[in-house]
Amino acid sequence: MAKKGSREYITLECSVCKSRNYRTSKQTKSRGTKNQAEKLVLSKFCSVCRAHKEHRERKK
């Protein structure tokens, strides 16, 4: 079975206190589509702020 796309590991950083709380992966490239240009943004719980805040993608 052929590999359809590769995954890239990224770190999510709190947009308020800049602490790096989460690691995840995302699809980088698949056959017939372009690379994902925009950065991943998720609402996650920040243990430093003790509230749900916006977390943005950062490279290692």
Task: Sum this structure up briefly.
By secondary structure, the protein is mostly beta strands. It has strands spanning 5-14, 20-30, 41-46, 51-58.
Describe the protein in words.
This protein has 60 residues and is mainly beta. The protein has a single domain (5-28, 38-58), classed as Rubrerythrin, domain 2. Helices cover 0% and strands 58% of the residues. The chain contains no helices and 4 strands. The protein has strands at 5-14, 20-30, 41-46, 51-58. β3 and β4 form a beta hairpin. The mean pLDDT is 85.
- How many helices in DSSP terms? 0
Q: How many structural domains in the coordinates?
A: 1
CATH architecture: Single Sheet
Query: H/E series, N to C?
Result: EEEE
- Our measurement of the CA-to-CA distance between the termini, rounded to an integer number of angstroms, reads 30 Å
- The average pLDDT is 85
Q: Which stretches are low in confidence, meaning pLDDT under 50 for 5 or more residues running?
A: none
* Strand segment count: 4
CATH class: Mainly Beta
Report the helical percentage: under 10%
If strands are numbered along the chain, what order do they take across the biggest sheet? 2-1-4-3
Name the features.
60 residues; mainly beta; Rubrerythrin, domain 2; 4 strands; 0% helix; elongated
Write the layout of secondary structure elements.
Blueprint: E1 5-14, E2 20-30, E3 41-46, E4 51-58
Antiparallel strand pairs: 1-2, 1-4, 3-4
